[in-house]
Amino acid sequence: MDAKQVGKWIVARENPSSLLHAVRTAVAAVVSYLIARMFSLPEAYWASISTLIVMQSTLGAALPISAQRFAGTAIGAAVGAVTATYFPGSVWAFGIAVFVIGAVCAAFGVARSAYRYASITLAIVMLVTRSASPWLIAVHRFFEVSLGIAVGLLLSALWPEGAEDSAVGNTSGGSCGAPR
User: N or C: which end of the chain has fewer CB within 10 A?
Assistant: First the structure.
């Protein structure tokens, strides 16, 4: 692999970043963080992180992945709370829970991204040491992520990228070269 190939992966010709996208993303990230803080969610930054993920796509592209992230977070939080309650601190229980979530997702034909989000949430609930109960941690995680998803989707719907991009020098819209 040479530098030219790496440059092609980084520099977007068809879907470059735009100033409008940067403004929309910054506004959405701050709004979701402030709302999470308003509700005294202990890890409000997860709302912003979720919003940042949602904002990297158009509304149409963000809807299905957001539904998968929502479902995966719910599954991971529930399995994480149950597993951490009965097997606190057990890395073996964590590994088995990752497998069980994968098996359930495979049995029901759930998208891999939902399984990925479920496993990430499981890891956060089970492996990050906190003094709160696993159930409270799981509920907080679910609400932090759900809030971030909702804010990202709402802002994408109310303030879509489009014709405004040409005003800031980008006629294709887009975000950091990510496929839309």
Answer: N
